[in-house]
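Re: folding output
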Amino acid sequence: MANSQAICTSFKVELLNGMHAFGTSVTRGSTTADSFKAALFLSSGSLGAGTTAYSSTNEVSGTGYTAGAWVLGRRVASQASPILAFLAGWGILRGLALIPIVNGLSWLAATVVGLGAIVVAIHRARRGEAVADAAAAPPPPPAAPPPPATTPA
């Protein structure tokens, strides 16, 4: 069975019964917010509205895709923080994943670019080079030239 896009039925029931706290509240006698997590799964997984427990089986993972999302986000939002840049890149990649043929191509491109970025970063780190960041301070201006020599008259 292929994945179906759905919110777990049990979550919807618990949500309507006030079991989940999106912020700090005293609805359940506790003032701590719940943590909500999401995962990306392959189409070969068998997940749907009846799924009630997390399983890492058929979960998509990989450092290349994550690094590719960050690289894309830095291109789009170069002045943003690294976390916001990653979220921007990830959002773009998730949007592209909705297009049938483009989803596989965007995943491949993001993975290749991300792995390439990791290889370059490791290479530069081993050589002791500083990694340039868009948010880094610009280099100081060059020193002024010395004044011309004066000759006595």
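--- second protein (sequence, then structure) ---
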Amino acid sequence: MNTMNLLQKLKQTFWIANILAVLVIFAILLPGSRRMSSSDSGAKESAGSALALVPVELSDLLRHNPFRPLIAPPAPPKVVPVLAPPMPPPPPKIPISQKASRLHLVGIINGDPIQAVVEDAQTHTTLYLTTGQSIGDIRIEKILSDHIVLASDDDHMDLAL
């Protein structure tokens, strides 16, 4: 119980000392308070005191925000727009004559359905094709008695016997 009373007395003394310190600071800083004249400052300096009083107005203290951070926050990073690289141009269109240069019409078989016998020089194979079938991207469009019509994209070509 005795220690509790001692702690309460210490708290009261602490608060009283803080209140007195605040009052003394306000008394010094209040406008119209006594300021040191040049004759007073000379007397103090001659007395060997290194402490010099600087006149301070309350408006000077209120002009600056004492709660602002001392270190400025870092600037946000600059946003640089990233442009997508341009699309490459489409590959050049290969003419059907170049695509079909490896094909040779060997014969035509009349029947139901009519068939074209085509030899592929690149793969060394013989193909029996009907209308509508394809060799890669070359389509057999028509089979006639002496030639066939090939188509690729919008390009057409005749391949004769």
